[in-house]
TrEMBL record:
Protein origin, superkingdom: Eukaryota
Name of the protein described by the UniProt record: GDSL esterase/lipase
Signal peptide: 1-22
Pfam families for this protein: Lipase_GDSL (PF00657)
Any GO BP: lipid catabolic process
Organism name: Glycine soja
């Protein structure tokens, strides 16, 4: 009998160890989801748009846009990939299908959807396309139509791009008078949009801080692309300060039940400036000079005359330029910003 007990004791000990290990695995599984997000929903403007604007409306569908990726114009406001594509890459999902193409390519619905339209803002702009409120309406309708389920939304991330089109319209209409109050209204509307997206069931919502508008080529052209406009960047700092305050308050309202439901700011200002201040680190040689410009002030990147003769010129190496046209980064520019965000550990908070 004693020998039997001696044989049983190691077996019991082994069982106990395996049981405790099993309990530990269960606890770890409960502490963090086993799977990351499977879908990306995108709202905003040309920094995130991957083809929602009609071909006949925008230069983004004309040569030389898309020459780096996918090798032809595809509706992206760059020579290649944009912010959406890099966020999708980080999430390890395919870049979501543009809303405009949802019925033509239903097999891609499983990756989410891109509702961003170039030129739009949180309010109406000079571009008569869906503003962000309407873009969120589109997702809400798709949920009502059962295109996306509650589980789909739970396993998703939303990317919100606010790149400054509201300010462009305001300043052309009103100048700088009352600008601080308008900045507050833009941020307040952005906050309302974030809350609404969360209310639809999205568990992680990422909003881009405003990039340094004063460093865009349309601003630096007056200095022959040598200096950023400090006045414009002061506006950006006000916007970003108010946005940070708003998002911090939203996160403070998070409950234990919604511990994975967080609002995250992508610090595009600091990441842009880091690349522009140290361009050689990212193999960038032309930091403020745009790669693609019109041959004169009456033309822009992608312009042709009535005889279809090109009225633009393109730099020899888009991969060495940060800016593609007067407003948008090249693929190389976005890639550098993406890498900087990664080194800043700004992206890890996107994952559950």
């Amino acid at each position: 009998m004693m020998n039997s007990h001696k044989q049983l004791f190691p077996l019991f000990s082994l069982f106990l160890v395996l049981y405790l290990l099993g309990q530990r695995v269960v606890l770890q599984a409960e502490a963090s989801p086993q799977h990351g997000p499977t879908k990306l929903f995108v709202f905003g403007d040309s920094y995130a748009d991957t083809g929602n604007i009609q071909r006949t409306v925008s230069n983004s569908w004309k040569d030389p846009y898309g020459i780096t990726f996918p090798g032809k114009p595809a509706g992206r406001f760059s020579d290649g990939r944009v912010l959406t594509d890099y966020i999708a890459k980080y999430l390890k999902v395919k870049s979501p299908i543009p809303y405009r193409l949802r019925k033509l390519m239903p097999q891609h619905l499983k990756y989410g959807m891109n509702f961003a339209f170039g030129g739009t803002g949180v309010f109406n702009t000079f571009v008569p396309l869906p503003n962000m409120t309407t873009q969120i309406d589109f997702l809400e309708q798709l949920i009502k139509d059962k295109v996306y389920t509650t589980l789909d939304l739970t396993n998703s991330v939303a990317l919100v791009s606010v790149a400054g089109n509201d300010y462009g319209r305001y300043m052309l209409t009103n100048g700088s008078q009352g600008l601080p109050s308008f900045v507050a209204s833009v941020v307040n509307q952005t906050r309302s949009n974030l809350i609404r997206i969360k209310g639809l069931g999205v568990k992680k919502i990422v909003v881009g801080a405003l990039q340094p508008l004063g460093c865009l080529p349309q601003e630096t052209a007056t200095s022959s692309f040598q200096r950023c406009n400090a006045t414009s960047n002061a506006l950006v700092l006000l916007h970003n300060s108010l946005l940070n305050q708003a998002v911090t308050k939203l996160n403070q309202l998070e409950t234990t039940k919604d511990r994975y439901s967080t609002f995250v700011i992508l610090n595009l200002f600091d990441s842009f400036m880091s690349v522009l201040n140290h361009p050689s680190t990212h193999n960038i040689r032309n930091k403020l000079t745009p790669c693609c410009v019109g041959v004169s002030s009456g033309y822009s990147c992608g312009s042709v005359d009535k005889n279809n003769v090109k009225k633009y010129r393109v730099c020899d190496d888009p991969k060495s330029a940060f800016f593609w046209d007067l407003v948008h980064p090249t693929q190389a520019g976005w890639h550098a910003v993406y890498n900087k965000l990664r080194t800043m550990n700004a992206l890890q908070h996107i994952l559950y």
